[in-house]
Specification:
This protein is an alpha/beta fold and about 300 residues long. A six-stranded mixed β-sheet has the order 2-3-1-4-5-6, with helices on both faces. The chain has a three-stranded mixed β-sheet with strand order 7-8-9. Strand 2 and strand 3 form a beta hairpin. Helix 6 packs antiparallel against helix 8. The two termini are about 20 Å apart. The C terminus is likely disordered.
Length: about 300
């Protein structure tokens, strides 16, 4: 296809700056889970944006933070490897006139990389416009950017402009995916992440970071209208956390299951029978064996 552009774009930044929200907004549907808690994204999630100009493959990465365990080291490693695997880097920040220590570390890492970096100031709907000038001034002193763009992933303001700018930096290339492809994530993984999202949103601050979800069974029964039978296990690190997840008379676990099932039915377009269990595996975030079992292993370039 003449002048067809295609390439890979990495979304990087500190935890909770809105990378997953932005990716979902661009793709036009929910692919990555979101919450108001940091470190929601744990793996690199790849999605595909199509229009008549070409194809942009976005890679949403875990937030870069100071790792406290093996899982944290894995997450930061995934984000940093993305710096070298993409054609353009989109660095998301929030409007702030000061550059914190976390963003300072990101700037130091990005400044050593030849990949074009577009600084995106997200959440502009939460601050007056004059604050943006202070943010631009503060970050421009840390490194040189190919572009600086303000936007709101929540409202969509400025997102179209970002897409236009990204195309200007992408090379002409092949169509990597068919037009009906929106993500490379297996459905089983999306289902597990939907369950984890509900734990993030419904449980206290302390519990969610120590939770993993494994899908034990996922069977489709075509029947009259179709039904998915899904069995999954929520894994936590402490007996006390297990009690919180289950809740009094099982109320919290039922609520987690009910909210997850609603979104699964929308995604799968059929009824879902969801069974949830809770197990304790102490210190699983520091176990290489358990991390691999839960899908946290060295990711490979998917080009």
């Amino acid at each position: 296809m003449e002048h067809f552009k295609s390439g890979f774009v990495g979304l990087v930044g500190r935890p909770n700056v809105g990378k997953s929200t932005l990716m979902n907004r661009i793709i036009g549907q929910k692919i990555a889970i979101t919450s108001n808690k940091p470190q929601t994204t744990r793996n690199r999630i790849q999605t595909v944006y199509h229009d008549n100009r070409g194809q942009i493959i976005f890679q949403d990465t875990p937030g870069i933070h100071r790792a406290k365990n093996r899982l944290g080291e894995y997450m930061v490693g995934v984000a940093k490897r993305t710096f070298e695997d993409v054609d353009v880097i989109v660095w998301l920040i929030e409007p702030d006139e000061k550059v914190g220590s976390g963003d300072q570390r990101i700037a130091e890492a990005l400044s050593k990389n030849p990949t074009p970096v577009i600084l995106v100031i997200n959440k502009i709907d939460t601050k007056p416009k004059e604050e943006l000038l202070k943010t631009i001034d503060a970050y421009s002193k840390k490194m040189e950017f190919s572009e600086i763009l303000p936007l709101s992933a929540k409202t969509g303001e400025g997102v179209r402009e970002l897409i236009d700018v990204l195309y200007s930096y992408l090379p002409e290339g092949p169509k990597f995916y068919e037009e009906d492809t929106v993500t490379d994530q297996p459905v089983r993984q999306i289902v597990a992440e939907l369950i984890r999202e509900k734990t993030l949103r419904l449980l206290s601050e302390e519990v969610p970071h120590g939770i993993a979800v494994s899908v034990d069974q996922m069977k489709f029964n075509p029947g009259k209208k179709g039904l998915y039978q899904i069995d999954a296990t929520i894994v936590c690190e402490k007996d006390s956390h297990k009690g919180i997840i289950i809740g009094k008379q099982g109320h919290m676990l039922k609520r987690i299951g009910m909210e997850a099932r609603k979104e699964m039915e929308q995604m799968l377009e059929c009824k879902v029978n969801l069974n949830l269990w809770v197990k304790v595996k102490k210190d699983w975030r520091d176990s290489d064996f358990l991390l691999k079992n839960f899908g946290f292993h060295n990711d490979t370039d998917m080009r």
